[in-house]
Amino acid sequence: MQSDHKLNDGQQKAVEFNGKHLLVLAGAGTGKTRTIIARAAYLIERGVDPSKIQILTFTKKAANEIVERVKSTLPQSNGNNLSGATFHSWCNQLIVRFPNLFGAASYTVIDPDDQLSIMKMVCGNHNLEFGKLRIKPQELIDVYSFARNTKKSLTESLRQKLFKNRKDGDTDYELKTIKPHVEKLLRAYQAKKAEQRYLDYDDLLLVVATQLKDNQEARSILAQHIEYLLVDEMQDTNPLQWTLLDPFVSICKLFCVGDDAQSIYSFRGADFKNVHLFKDRVPESEVYKLEKNYRSTQEILDISNWLLEKSPIEYNKKLEAIRGTGELPQLVNVSDEWQEANWVADEILKNYTDEDRMFSDHLILSRSQYYAKSLQAVFIRRKIPYVTYGGRKFMQAAHIKDLVSLLRIVNNPYDEIAWIRFLTFQEGIGEVRASRILQQVIEKIDVEEIPSIFQNAMPGEDGKKIAELYESIKEKDDVGKMVDMAYEAMALGLAFRYRRDWEEKRKGDFPVLRLLADSYPTLGEFIGEGLLDNSEQMNGVNVLSESKLNTAENKDHVIISTIHSAKGLEADVCIVLNVSPKAFPSAWSLDNLEEIEEDRRVLYVAMTRAKNRLILTRNTSSITAVHNRALPTPGGQKTSDAETYFLNELPDALVEQKTIAHQFGKVRDAETPNTIDLSSGMDFS
DNA sequence: ATCAAGCACATTTTT
DNA sequence: TGTGCTTGAT
User: Fold this and answer.
1) Which residues pair with A289 in a beta bridge?
2) Fewer CB in a 10 Å sphere around the end CB: N or C, chain A?
């Protein structure tokens, strides 16, 4: 973040914009976040009621950060009612807060795991093999979600997701054959969702968007609550999100910031051309540009600019560094990912001891969560503190879901997934018996009957206990107490089921869950928003984001993040892992120009995170880019990879290259004589 | 019917 | 790395 407090002219102009709607096109590092923060603060200082300003971002983390920073610029508690949220959690809040308007308040928000289980139930005994094509339930979910997010037809979505956009006779024929089957399954999935009163992530947006679009009264009600909508990362909004925003054009003022060159969510339906259409779609709107980069030195921008120039797409963007020149970026050649990981560890320890840098000055970026696994192993062994961004969500851990399943039943007795999970959690009840009990539940859904169902289902004391537990949880109006009570009842069972790592890993999560629960006023909001809330992982252990909990005992740590989760982050030293052939662009996108270009933007986002030192590592043995088995033999298709590889024509002058010798022990002996590292040259996978 | 252990397998990116 | 599926023992 910039440390000086002055805004430049362009930023100032945007902040004080006096018209109706504004789009700020802001390149990487040009102070996008600062501008949105200053805008919010400006509005509040000008007397706008903070509760009528809604900030929308893509991650909870970004939302919290912006809100905190706005508050810190304002005197006293002026910004206390300012609200920042993701699109999804905002919609969830609206649904809960206006139960009559949206009519979905008693519904349960389900996560992707739950979606998958429903889809599996639906597919059940259907045969999903069509000739050589086999459709997996997860793929059905993806197609369904893609279609709804992009507003594209099923046929078109199938073509894009399942057939990689191929257009030929065979494809058309296959498409025609499978489409009716897919349609039937998706309809069944929808029916099941409705019957059990589930809302998946897309439904959250859809429910709110459709109601606002169709219902004048809904619009005027919300118009009383929201005056200003500030939207971050506009280039990542997809057609569904746009339908959500569209009604607000007539009832409040939009202030959007974005950068077409940083659009990296097309797999979720985002289309960066949307930002180009802003002026056409939004009447009474203007577009401003911010082009001065405050973050990086010129060398870092040179290589980033070079990357964009190589694209067939015109971005009309050339970042210029206000800060002037610095170090040349480094391109480090390694021969496998363990060597890479050890080299990165060496580098960080060297910076820490010799250059007086802190661990937190380092940001390590990888394409996928999976890729950074070996790095994490090395960091743990070599005692480098780190946190990961973009890991598995706290609420998705098995032991947490077990406990939450009971609360979900209380919240929504139609919730079959929760019933199955809770019932099979009981000793001696498997799938068969659980679904039999479920039948009884469905037949007489009367809430009064539920305790007796428990009693009938389970012999003797157990059933009685659970029936009582259900009753007493229902009585509580405090979410934290509900968690306590559920934990009390389930702790023994949990400890037994997860006895392998209960004490070390799982037990400690429950006090955390309790604290999280305390921050939600109702059970519905806890279940829904808790799912949407991001957590960080500290040395492999789940930790909730700092705004929710004061877990910052160790502030100084390296950040390991996927590039997708790193938007808005920046660091003194930024290391981008595995900028190798078959990774940039990824072997998956090789035959698709749009995907190749998206990969280019991904790399661009990664590079522009660096403030002073940018390091790209590259794996020289071409097969390790993805897992060995996923790729043909080494040397197989070198030609096509060589043609598309982004760094292929990289001018020598833009980087300093070095190659790490492939030698056992060279690196580790030199740097850490007293740790024994048995991993070099050994692939344990 | 339930559960644990063993084996095979496949891995973008996120709300 | 973990997780999903089959198998064999209770």
Assistant:
1) A25
2) C
